[in-house]
Amino acid sequence: EDQVTQSPEALRLQEGESSSLNCSYTVSGLRGLFWYRQDPGKGPEFLFTLYSAGEEKEKERLKATLTKKESFLHITAPKPEDSATYLCAVQAESGGYQKVTFGTGTKLQVIP
Amino acid sequence: ETGVTQTPRHLVMGMTNKKSLKCEQHLGHNAMYWYKQSAKKPLELMFVYNFKEQTENNSVPSRFSPECPNSSHLFLHLHTLQPEDSALYLCASATAPAGQETQYFGPGTRLLVL
């Protein structure tokens, strides 16, 4: 069974304090790994898709990386507006279907 | 309007009520999804529609009934729900269910079942 585990569950950072969020996965036939940001009371907002080990993508203060077992979302010099829950999801082929499995998320709070 | 919209944004219903959730996407996508999001749990995929045809039903109780009249609209009909069905219901759309597509989510409907 496909599994996605995100850590830590919650993270509190001072403004400007860089850190990383982890998403480890166990799937067969990985087709893609997605990062989303979700603000309270809203739907997830797409950030990145990574397709193969070694791939990296950046957007403003965020950088996502992928290995064969895990993905990291690096946050450089975060600002209070980066506070949100960050969700990781993997897409894998299962029984001829494409299946997407989400993690439970990391709730990030950036203190001014 | 652009993106994925959902109505209503909030819904309170009794266990004997019948209500419907509506989702509309303005992205020209061919696939639409219903997810359930409960506190401390991962998003749970409920239904998948591809070109108006249901392609996945992840063991969802029959008190949830989806309807997809066209590629732009998706409904979730609710009947005799239980308090444990209270959650955020999210709709998403994508270019296709197969392949390396990205799903785009609506804002969700916050449902409370009393």
Structure description:
The complex is a heterodimer of chains A (112) and B (114). Chain A is built from no helices and eleven strands. Chain A is mainly beta. In chain A, strands 2, 4, 5, 9, 10 and 11 form a six-stranded mixed β-sheet that branches. Chain A has a five-stranded antiparallel β-sheet with strand order 1-3-8-7-6, with no helix packed on it. The termini of chain A are far apart. The mean pLDDT of chain A is 93. Chain B is mainly beta and 114 residues long. Helices cover 0% and strands 56% of the residues of chain B. Chain B has no helices and eleven strands. In chain B, strand 7 and strand 8 form a beta hairpin. Chain B is globular and about 35 Å long. Chain B starts with a strand and ends with a strand. The model of chain B has no long low-confidence stretch (mean pLDDT 90). Classes of the chains: A mainly beta (112), B mainly beta (114). Chains A and B meet through strand 4, strand 5, strand 9 and strand 10 of A and strand 10 of B.
Summarize the entry for a quick read.
With 112 residues, chain A is mainly β.
Helix content of chain A: under 10%
Overall morphology of chain B = globular
Secondary structure: number of strands of chain A: 11
Portion of residues in beta strands of chain B equals over 45%
The protein's oligomeric status is heterodimer
Mean pLDDT of chain A: 93
* Order of SSEs of chain B: EEEEEEEEEEE
| CA radius of gyration of chain A | 14 Å
Most extensive interface, chain pair and sizes: A-B, 25 and 23 residues
Shape of chain A: globular
Low-confidence parts of chain A lasting 5 or more residues at pLDDT below 50?
A: none
Strands of chain B, total number: 11
Fraction of residues in β-strands of chain A: over 45%
The first-to-last residue Cα distance of chain A is 41 Å
What are the secondary-structure elements of chain A, in order, as H or E?
A: EEEEEEEEEEE
- CA radius of gyration of chain B is 13 Å
